[in-house]
Amino acid sequence: MQEESKSIHNPKLAMILSIIFAGLGQFYNRRWIKGSIFVIVELLFIVICGQFVNDGIWGLRTLGTIPGEHHSLFLIIFGLISLILLGFALTLYVLNIIDAKNDAVKIVNGEEKRTIMEALRHTWDRGFPYVFVTPGLIMLLFIVVLPLMFTVALAFTDYNLYNSPPRNLLNWVGFDNFTNMVTLKAWKDTFFKVLTWTIVWTVSSTTLQIALGLFLALLVNDPRIKFKKFIRTFLILPWAVPAFVTILIFAAMFNDKFGAINREILSVFNIVIPWLQDPFWTKIALIMIQTWLGFPFVFALFTGILQSVSKEWYEAADVDGGTRWQKFRHITFPHIMYATAPLLIMQYAGNFNNFNIIYLFNNGGPAVRNQSAGGTDILISWVYKLTFELNQYNMAAAISLILGLIVTVFAFFQFRRTRSFKEEGNIE
């Protein structure tokens, strides 16, 4: 009789019942408690969240129909929250189907049914990590992911100073904002100039601070150098001063009229440089300041790594007749890069979005005629101006999306090429 029951039991039927309504497949498998939980959860979702999700999806699709009454921004937010709730519901729904199928397969295979206590213990053992991860995941979704989704959504609307809710309703415009960014002259010239300077700024300032930090670390690590502790402490001091304080001090020092650099240093050679009026010299000043701000961290990082390089490697190189350059090229440099590549990549990504120094030094200036960006604005500072000064929210969101994609692709590509993020045993 038991064998006949096993042969009659059908996993496909359990899946179909779970698709019709969560929990029915568990009832078919005689998992009464589990089935009741799934049924209650689905009923609660329909009763409590059903109308909210339905209205949210409608608002996200239409962005409102009555100007002055429907607020498109709120409808976007409610719609995105509805998508998150719907994602949770669909996840549980799929788990319900998989669970019904797995239980049905176990019944067909003749596996013994667990007691209630055994089932609870098994569920707790397997689900223990998820119990503690879930609250953090929920917070992450609503604190980090939801604002990102909102920014992405704005990039595909016509939200600007002249079309703002609730007086006006927003509209979905597809990829028009991105197309205008690279086709309309008013936007194209500014975008490509700012993008070019952002890349030049990122590569030059970060590379210089890394090169200076490496040079000083190698110099201090030389066994012939005395008073190493004092020198290391002295070189790390700029890192101890808050960056914004240093930037403001340098802004005063580079001032064209009363700055110490022009008045006290360059005046000796009868030279006056328009540090804050000429975009070229402002960029030079910014690169020098960022090199000063960034090298102490790199210096401290490389100094620690150099302590771990085995002296036996250098001794073996001396026996083979290796020169200083060969030892640096084949021992020191590869060892440093292997250990620090991810952090150095993050230095480039951080400077790509380094808003503080651009804004605090000269507010992205000097101004450029017929452009919404200043002569030294990078993408992130231009986004700030578009958002808070020009109210071009849709274009700011579009640029933010482009900026995020650039950083993500660059970081992903570089991390994939480094060995530091490969699991042990997978390094070839």
TrEMBL record:
<dbReference type="InterPro" id="IPR035277">
    <property type="entry name" value="MalF_N"/>
</dbReference>
<dbReference type="InterPro" id="IPR035906">
    <property type="entry name" value="MetI-like_sf"/>
</dbReference>
<protein>
    <recommendedName>
        <fullName>Maltose/maltodextrin transport system permease protein</fullName>
    </recommendedName>
</protein>
<keyword id="KW-1133">Transmembrane helix</keyword>
<keyword id="KW-0472">Membrane</keyword>
<feature type="transmembrane region" description="Helical">
    <location>
        <begin position="35"/>
        <end position="53"/>
    </location>
</feature>
<comment type="function">
    <text>Part of the ABC transporter complex MalEFGK involved in maltose/maltodextrin import. Probably responsible for the translocation of the substrate across the membrane.</text>
</comment>
<comment type="similarity">
    <text>Belongs to the binding-protein-dependent transport system permease family. MalFG subfamily.</text>
</comment>
<feature type="transmembrane region" description="Helical">
    <location>
        <begin position="130"/>
        <end position="156"/>
    </location>
</feature>
<feature type="domain" description="ABC transmembrane type-1">
    <location>
        <begin position="195"/>
        <end position="414"/>
    </location>
</feature>
<keyword id="KW-0812">Transmembrane</keyword>
<feature type="transmembrane region" description="Helical">
    <location>
        <begin position="284"/>
        <end position="306"/>
    </location>
</feature>
<feature type="transmembrane region" description="Helical">
    <location>
        <begin position="194"/>
        <end position="221"/>
    </location>
</feature>
<feature type="transmembrane region" description="Helical">
    <location>
        <begin position="73"/>
        <end position="95"/>
    </location>
</feature>
<dbReference type="Pfam" id="PF00528">
    <property type="entry name" value="BPD_transp_1"/>
</dbReference>
<keyword id="KW-1003">Cell membrane</keyword>
<feature type="transmembrane region" description="Helical">
    <location>
        <begin position="331"/>
        <end position="350"/>
    </location>
</feature>
<keyword id="KW-0762">Sugar transport</keyword>
<feature type="transmembrane region" description="Helical">
    <location>
        <begin position="233"/>
        <end position="254"/>
    </location>
</feature>
<dbReference type="InterPro" id="IPR000515">
    <property type="entry name" value="MetI-like"/>
</dbReference>
<keyword id="KW-0813">Transport</keyword>
<feature type="transmembrane region" description="Helical">
    <location>
        <begin position="393"/>
        <end position="413"/>
    </location>
</feature>
